[in-house]
């Protein structure tokens, strides 16, 4: 909990240094607000006489206070307050959006048992710059779920225990200037095994109405000998996508008999952990082959 609080505070300081600042320097001040809300912009130092507000250089109102109601994206921009001489005494950049929604988190292991991946999306675009904190917890230890960049929405979990009955708790927190939301997802490594699709599928016609198929395991699967795989092969043909499936098989090749001359077959392969952990991969790229009629 302390780590989470510290990371949250640090992220706010680093990425959103001011929700609303009273600094009177000439630098523009950032103001963040929710779309549809009301916003009040007072001119600095209590200046009232002759004050006027402009948006991106266009006159809005002669008043020391600018009030915006039911704000929309059209209200975003640089607001400047001018004194009676036309000099700028205040510049505010208004940015509108939403607080983060609850992240949708999905985890899978294409490289079992070495690592797992987690990715996430936000159901609603917050529009505002949004930062993500990604961690995972096992028992009393908390680890950073590593990302390639701060805006990357995918992270890597490494050195996970095999066959643990205690789940890892993946915590994804989305943070922007209007708030934060966190999703905690319990993960058992064996439950999220999902290999990448097989590769290099090759199909050749053989005499006697046969097809020879050969493929390779996914290159992201680190050790097919210690952690073997099983494959299934899908055949489709015709306008109605008639389908048959062969397998599962541990072999990386297969002969299909009884194929019809003149027919075009669409063939693809999927793979799964031999012991049935997790789920099957997506299908490989499809290979088409048409058998000659003679």
Automatic annotation (TrEMBL):
Q: Where is the Fibronectin type-III domain positioned along the sequence?
A: 197-294
User: Pfam families, per this entry?
Assistant: fn3, FN3_IL27B_N
- Database matches in CDD domains: FN3
InterPro entries named in the record: FN3_dom (IPR003961), FN3_IL27B_N (IPR056621), FN3_sf (IPR036116), Hematopoietin_rcpt_L_F3_CS (IPR003530), Ig-like_dom_sf (IPR036179), Ig-like_fold (IPR013783), IL11/IL27_subunit_beta (IPR053073)
Keywords, comma-separated and alphabetical: Glycoprotein, Immunoglobulin domain, Repeat, Signal
Identify the PROSITE patterns for this entry.
FN3, HEMATOPO_REC_L_F3
Q: Which residues form the signal peptide?
A: 1-21
GO CC terms, sorted: membrane
Any idea which GO molecular function terms this record carries?
A: cytokine receptor activity
Q: Which family does it belong to?
A: Belongs to the type I cytokine receptor family. Type 3 subfamily.
Q: What is this protein called?
A: Interleukin-27 subunit beta
What's the source species for this entry?
A: Ictalurus punctatus
